[in-house]
Structure formats: C-alpha cells, structure tokens
Amino acid sequence: MTHDWSLLKSLVEIHAPSGEESAIKAFLLKHLKENQANWTVQPQVVEGPGFQDCILWVFGQPRTAIFAHMDSIGFSVRYQNQLVPIGGPEAKTGYTLVGEDDLGPIECTLEVQEGGHLFYQFGRGIARGTSLTFKPDFRLTEDYVQSCYLDNRLGIYNALKVAETLTDGVIVFSAYEEHGGGTVPFLAKYVYEELSVRQALISDITWVTEGVEPGKGTAISIRDRHIPRRSFVNRIASIAEEANIPYQLEVEGAGSSDGRELQMSPYPFDWCFVGAPEDHVHSPDEKVHRADIDSMITLYQELMRKL
Q: How far apart are CA 141 and CA 143, in angstroms?
C-alpha cells in the first residue's frame, strides 16, 4: 500500500488537545478542498456553530459512519508552574512539552514530583490556561511508525485514506474524546435522524497487549469497558475473513472510545472499534507497525463497501 507519510507527520504536529480542535478542523477542511477533486465522490460538508469544531463529510447514500476523534491528550498550565493533565497522558520527568501563549512559543520540560504532582520548568512563567503537548518527533523505519499522537491522528489518517475511494458513507470527526467526550451525542443525533445511518466504526488506536501483537493485523474489538452487539462484531470479522485481511480479535475490560457514547445514546447504533494496536500508549513515543496500518485501511475500505 502506498502511504503519504508526510500527511501523517503533519497531522501529529498539529497542536489540538481536547477543547482546542479548531486547528485540526481547519487542516481537514483545507485538505478536503485541495484533494477532493481526485476522490471518487466529493462529499457534502456539514459543520458550523451547531457542531462546534466537529465536521461531517457525507458521501453518496451512507449506510455506515466512521467516527474519528480529533483531539489529543496534553497538559493545562495551572498556577505558578503547576500542570494538570488533559486526558490520561503518560508523565515522566524530562519529557519536552510545547505550546504558545501571548508572550510567544514555549518549549519546556515536564517535572514529576513526589505524589505524582506535575510541574513545568521554563525560563519564565506561562500564562494560566495555556495548553501544552508533547513535542513531536516523527520516526519512520522499515517496520514501524513512531510519534506522539498516533492516537488518534492515525485514526484520522485512516479516514482520509478511506475517503479517497469512498462512494457511500459518512466520516465524522469528533472532539473531546480524550477528556470525557461530549460531542458524539449531538453528532449521533444528526447521523441517525438526518442521514438514517445506524451503524458505526470507531477509527481509533488501541493497545498492544499479550493477546494483540504488533504486525499481526488491525484489532477488531469484541469489548473494552463496553460491549457492542456481538452480531455486528461477527459481521465485521466475517468480512475480514472473506477478504483475507489480517486482523486480531481484542478482548479488554478497560478503556473506551466514541463507541461508548454511541452505546449510551438514545439511538440504536451498532458500533465496533476497529483500529491498529500501538505500544507506549499516550506517551511521546507511540509506536505502530506499518503492516497493521495497511490492514486497518484495507479493512475499512472493505467494510464501507459491504456493511
């Protein structure tokens, strides 16, 4: 499979922790404008004040929705030199954090003190409320991609690759997923009521574990903290089997995604998390096997044709 690694590199470099998705929204709208003429179908764009920073791309007559969250984990500057986490970032002394306030760009060092209290070390005070994220360091080897924020810029990259040949479907770019969610309910309402779509795939990144290994295919999740309808999961696995696409079945007791909010919504959505596994989760060094990226994209293309 041919990849545009420069596109993925650009995505991971966008500063967009939970609550600050506007920058990645602008990037996606620009990408659409510059590339959609070469796509099989040019989508209808749904966005605006009623959708906050979220976007929907509607292709043809959709039957299935892809949900991909735009935000990342990070840190908020509190008072003095204190930090509080956004979502669940891994925190280790020495990590380099970046951001910007009214006085200019910031590149500072994370310090973890006794009791797990977080602080920054910088040559001046940083304005309270400023968000900081891991400094990007995009690395590509023969087998792996490694960078901060593959969760979930890789999920977005997957959606963009699927968009190139998608004829019928809706791609939903959501916000806030890393820090409690909150946008999927109104997005689900639109998708269900206006588009009559009631099945969804969660384009997100999961964990490498003792049962889900790198290089053995994308994960199809039977369950995490929540349990999707098994008949829908089985349909997805059957389509992967018929197409000879490598995959791994995942069974976890923790973790969640945009699928949680679909399951908790008043709408009868079938949903399933389908995503490549990564090592070093929520750290500056997230690592995904390139074969699993190929598997993820190929399976999504097949699922959007056959579901």
A: 5
**What's the token pair of residue 44?**
């209808």
Average pLDDT over the chain, rounded to an integer? 97
| Chain centroid, CA 19 distance in Å | 14
CA neighbor of 5 nearest in space, from 146, 135, 133: 146
CA 74 to chain CA centroid, Å, is 14
* Strands 82-86, 96-101: pairing kind: unpaired
**Could you tell me if 122 and 139 are in contact, meaning their C-beta atoms sit under 8 angstroms apart?**
no
| Cα–Cα distance measured from residue 78 to residue 266, given in angstroms and rounded to the nearest whole number | 37
Q: What is the pLDDT of residues 121-149, one digit of tens each?
A: 999 999 999 999 999 999 999 999 999 99
Q: Does 152 sit behind a cis peptide bond, omega within 30 degrees of 0 on the bond before it?
A: yes
- What string of DSSP letters covers 138-190? -EE-SSEEE-TTHHHHHHHHHHHHHHTT-SSEEEEEE--GGGT--SHHHHHHH
Per-residue pLDDT tens for 201-243? Answer: 999 999 999 999 999 999 999 999 999 999 999 999 999 999 9
What is the Cα–Cα distance from 72 to 172, expressed in whole angstroms?
Answer: 16
Which domains, from first to last, does the chain contain?
Answer: 5-72+139-306 (3.40.630.10), 74-134 (2.40.30.40)
Q: What pLDDT does residue 1 have?
A: 87
pLDDT at res. 100:
98
How many other β-carbons are positioned within 10 Å of the β-carbon of residue 268?
A: 11
